[in-house]
Amino acid sequence: MKMLLTSVASLAVLVSGAKAQESMVFTSWGGTTQDAQIEAWAEPFSSESGINVLQDGPTDYGKLKAMVEADGVSWDVVDVEGDYAIQAGEQDLLEPLDFSVIDKTDLDERFVTDHSVGSFYYSFVIGCNEGAVSECPKTWADLFDTDKFPGKRTFYKWSAPGVIEAALLADGVSPDALYPLDLDRAFAKLDTIKDDIIWWSGGAQSQQLLASAEAPFGSFWNGRLSALSESGVPVSMSWDQNITAADSLVVPKGAKNKDAAMRFIAYATSPEAQAKMAELTGYAPINTKSPELMDEDRAATLPDRQTETQVNADMAYWAKNRDAIASRWYAWQTE
Amino acid sequence: MSSLTESRSVTGRQGGRRMPRLFGEVGPALPAFLLIVFFFVAPVVALLLRSVLEPVPGLQNYETLLGSATYIGVFANTFIVSTVVTAAALAIGFPVAWALVVMPMTWSRIVFAILILSMWTNLLARTYAWMVLLQRTGLINKMLMAVGLTDEPLTLVNNLTGVTIGMTYIMLPFVILPLYGVISNIDKAVLRAAALCGANRWQALTRVLLPLAAPGMAAGGLMVFVMSLGYFVTPALLGGTSNMMLAELIAQLVQSLTDWGLGSAAAFVLLLSTLVLYGLMLKFFGTSRLGGQ
């Protein structure tokens, strides 16, 4: 709805505008995350720069590739998964970022490449509906233990950093020995709970599964659990060995409004915009100056404070092995 | 779908003795014909080319598809689900269509309104509604447990059961509407005649009514089967990953893996099997009978 309103408003400005106004297109995953990106980034950026930010979505890698190949790119800034950003950069699908416009001094260097900067980062954590079960799993090993914790559990459906790491950690692999991923071992571990897995394909579905206790526990994006908890569902969250992964902001090769895109990314990664985004979503800022601008109570709940047992998914490893893992992942799922 | 219907009516009219009036008959169909060429035939050809040209020229995409147990499994599953859904839709749709013909006008209007309204409701909303109804803590399981039919909640979603229920529901109107057309044209006197000749109710159904309704069953069944083959939303939401269907595989190959060559090959195999099935149906039932005339 908000997206529609923004577009209609921008259209109205375009039509009535006394001077020709610059505009650009931002594409993300829709839902509450994109709503937050509009509020934290697009709207303040527009009023500051006079550049209209039109919204599109959801992000679709097939579409991005098609646009670049056909030289008909209608997206200027796209929110993508971190490992895809690295891979797409290597496949020459992205514009190099202009770091004379984007100030990267304070950006978390884990998420900066020549073609991408972090958008926000999140953790896969263990969530549990306390109202539905007598005891909640606290570790990945618990979540993979169907004797101790019988019932359905839910995991992210798509091939992406997170579930394979969780399986290996549950099987006793130490975090510093995770990479290169031992896929045989991971799939063998996943086999032990396969019949009890319900897959979630998007954030809203993960919330629905947990709230209805269709799957009373599972692995979730931390922000979705915070949101559920705020809506009154008795949700507990275990940060034990939380697995981080990030989204990135990229500019597709041949984007029509490259300059505006760079300015938008510069704004979106600024301390203020990142702090606002984190406050709205429960995901962590990728600008190291942001936490000090935030309400302490809120900042304390974000992944960047949960570093004690935190495990960082290796985005470079994933970028290199993304396709191979994905073929095996989807083949295993359909078995 | 529309393209199939379209080409069928064109060839149907063209055939045989009415050749001299060919242009006069086909002329009005020209805009539709051009539309199909530009927006259907051309993309399909592009698809076919992609499947043999990417990433390198050759048939390796088809080799991968047909040589992998995973992909064969997805094909098999697609056909199994479509068959089950078609059978279920016919089994439920036939009595409903019959009831619509014989029930008083006021009632049949209400049932029709329900049918049509459900078709007009957003597909995603209807599928989500089933998700909520079928889940372990959903209404259906609660009712089954309340009346003591089961102690444990049944797993009705994220598996073949969920896909079958959801898709059958969505496909029902496509069976009921053509069947209604055919059944309402059957002269009810033949049933009385059958009874007079000593047929019991079962014989009247199997030897008189069903054969007369066969063209409607074939048309509706084919429509449902073909639609099911390419169905995406409902299987993706109500099915589990172990009963993935082709459309989902294609989406995955194109969107997530950006392997367009393989995705195009899968899409082309789907199209080809659909056409073959359609051809077989035409051979067995003929154009005019499929048209329900």
TrEMBL record, chain A:
The keyword Cell division does not apply. Residues 1-20 form the signal peptide. InterPro entries: SBP (IPR006059). It comes from the Bacteria. The keyword tRNA processing does not apply. Gene3D superfamilies: Periplasmic binding protein-like II. Pfam families: SBP_bac_8 (PF13416). Keywords: Periplasm, Signal. PANTHER family: ABC TRANSPORTER SUBSTRATE-BINDING PROTEIN, SPERMIDINE/PUTRESCINE-BINDING PERIPLASMIC PROTEIN. This is ABC transporter substrate-binding protein. It comes from Fulvimarina endophytica.
TrEMBL record, chain B:
Residues 75-281 form the ABC transmembrane type-1 domain. GO terms for biological process: transmembrane transport. GO terms for cellular component: plasma membrane. It is found in: Cell membrane. It comes from the Bacteria. Pfam families: BPD_transp_1. InterPro entries: MetI-like, MetI-like_sf. Its main location: membrane. The chain crosses the membrane at residues 26-49, 69-98, 110-133, 160-183, 208-233, 260-280. Keywords: Cell membrane, Membrane, Transmembrane, Transmembrane helix, Transport. It is a multi-pass membrane protein. Belongs to the binding-protein-dependent transport system permease family. CysTW subfamily. This is ABC transporter permease. The lineage of its organism: Bacteria, Pseudomonadati, Pseudomonadota, Alphaproteobacteria, Hyphomicrobiales.
